[in-house]
Design a protein that fits this description.
By secondary structure, this protein is mostly helical. The protein is built from 4 helices and 2 strands, in the order ββαααα. Helix 1 runs antiparallel to helix 2 and helix 2 crosses helix 3.
């Protein structure tokens, strides 16, 4: 990943690197989650976003752990996505509307 910015996040004892998720992608995940569509749609959107952020090799390792039962769907789709977005938000400078 070179000089590119990334976040290292532990997932049940293993560290993975994630590139920042673009604001448009975060907005898309939130929109899909709130559209009242099938529960599978938000899950697909979160997984696609995480896969893009971490890259194919690491995503393959995460997927293997999910298949083996070492990780749950909630570990990946809920907890991991939330950790990544929280880390990303904490790293951003305060905007003009910050108190």
């Amino acid at each position: 990943m070179g000089d590119e910015k990334y976040y290292t996040i532990q997932v049940k004892g293993t560290a993975y690197r994630f590139r920042p998720v673009p604001d448009d992608d975060i907005a898309r995940v939130v929109a899909v989650a709130n559209m009242g569509a099938s529960p599978v749609k938000p899950l697909k959107m979160i997984m696609k976003t995480l896969a893009t952020s971490t890259g194919p090799e690491q995503w393959d390792a995460i997927t293997d752990r999910l298949i083996k039962g070492e990780l749950s769907v909630e570990d990946v789709s809920g907890k991991l996505f939330k950790k990544l977005i929280d880390r990303q938000k904490a790293d951003q400078p305060a905007g003009d509307d910050a108190e």
